[in-house]
Design goal:
This protein is α+β, with helices and mostly antiparallel strands. The protein has 2 domains: 177 residues, Peroxisomal Thiolase, Chain A, domain 1; 145 residues, Peroxisomal Thiolase, Chain A, domain 1 (3-Layer(aba) Sandwich), CATH 3.40.47.10. It is 31% helix and 24% strand. A 5-stranded mixed beta sheet has the order 1-9-14-13-12, with helices on both faces. A 5-stranded mixed beta sheet has the order 2-8-7-5-6, sandwiched between helices. A two-stranded antiparallel ribbon has the order 3-4. Helix 3 crosses helix 4 and helix 7 packs parallel to helix 8. It is globular. The structure holds oxa(dethia)-CoA (UT7).
């Protein structure tokens, strides 16, 4: 789907983030599987990632990120009437992690549910929340994106283990007088679903020989990523009547610095417009884009009036872009 925002202006009015304390370096991984710091940095740009403590679950990361977002927006939990948590690693299949978060922040009037769209989850969730706020169904939405992928990784598979990390970001969406979201482009290609999946995680039976861990055909996902990161960004810009030159801040999904560099080069973004933090966090799935937004807020790049382009891609296979004229005076520290 592709759509230009119409009618009411809706924007991000609060931003928060949270990552687990534990830093896991490439050298430590080299002690677990047959890999090296050099290989990981060369092929992915990743230097380290955060790993959740055994007692930490997705609702814990979500709650910490949400509290910061609420504070940044200057609103209380009871002011929120929609909570969406975009994740593929909820605390459990049900109840929804969003319902647990809503309860803990005191959002007693809120509808709350989880959304699964792989690493694109945050993009899908902000589009949904935009629609609900713009359409007047709700006044104020809290959207969390994050994952604890360390729980579903095969810790003896070097081809996936080195790529991912844990973390979450959260945003508050509400009506504003001007600016805010200009448009969205979202898509899915189920035929590519087999390239990135978690077998035996639902009602489909798999052979006992298929391990119940995140399974990925890295080369195929790489090809897909380099294609959609460019086509989705171009599509949303065209739909909104904007060009790459109009964009001040480019926030791509943080999967691999080679994918980011390829997309930025093809689209024509100079380095200073591109937000990169994959080196510090690895691929945090749905946490990636809100964590990158928090970084851009922290280093002063997200100022009212700035045009921000976000593009995500991931399991599904899915992709999604949003264009927003930033309206919020951010005071968050760099993620
Ligand atoms: O959010 C979306 C999720 N995923 C992605 O975006 C991932 C997309 N894919 C990628 O980023 C890249 O394909 C990878 C980083 C996963 C792999 O990079 P690559 O340059 O495509 O490497 P490759 O798969 O072609 O493997 C090259 C070699 C292989 O050895 P041989 O067959 O050439 O002898 C692998 O076995 O590198 C080997 N290899 C490793 N070596 C050291 C694979 N993983 C590792 C490792 N350490 N961790």
């Amino acid at each position: 789907m592709i759509a230009r925002a119409n009618g009411n202006h809706v924007s991000i009015t609060g931003l928060g983030w949270h990552v687990p304390e534990r830093v896991l370096t490439n050298d430590e991984l080299a002690g677990i599987v047959d890999t090296s710091d050099e290989w990981i940095r060369d092929r992915t740009g990743i230097r380290q990632r955060r790993i959740a403590a055994p007692e930490e679950a997705m609702s814990d990361l979500s709650l910490a990120a949400s509290r910061r977002a609420l504070e940044d927006a200057g609103v209380r939990g009871e002011d929120i009437d929609l909570v969406i948590v975009a994740t593929v690693t909820p605390d459990m299949m049900f109840p929804a992690t969003a319902a647990l978060v809503a309860e803990q922040i005191g959002a007693t009037r809120a509808a709350a549910y989880d959304l699964s769209a792989g690493c694109t989850g945050f993009m899908y969730a902000i589009a949904q929340a935009y629609g609900m706020v713009a359409g007047g169904l709700v006044q104020r939405a809290l959207v969390v994106g994050g994952d604890i992928l360390s729980r579903i990784l095969n810790w003896s598979d070097r081809s996936t283990l080195v790529l991912f990390g844990d973390g979450a970001g959260a945003v508050v969406l509400e009506r504003v007088d001007e600016g805010g979201f200009l448009g969205f482009e979202l898509g899915a290609d189920g035929a590519g679903g087999r390239e990135l999946l978690l077998p035996s995680s639902g009602s489909r039976k798999f052979e006992d020989s298929v391990p119940p861990y995140l399974t990925m055909n890295g080369r195929e996902v790489f090809k897909f990523a380099t294609r959609v990161m460019v086509s989705s960004a171009e599509a949303v810009l065209e739909e909104c009547g904007r060009t790459v030159e109009d964009v001040d801040v480019y926030v791509p999904h943080q999967a691999n610095v080679r994918i980011i560099d390829h997309a930025a080069r093809k689209l024509g973004f100079p380095d200073e417009k591109v937000v990169v933090n994959v080196d510090r966090y690895g691929n945090t799935s749905s946490g990636s884009i809100p964590l990158a937004l928090a970084d851009a807020a922290g280093d002063g790049r997200l100022q009212p009036g700035k045009l921000v382009l976000m593009t995500g891609m991931g399991a599904g296979l899915t992709w999604g872009s949003a264009l927003i004229e930033w309206t919020h005076e951010t005071n968050g520290a760099t993620a």
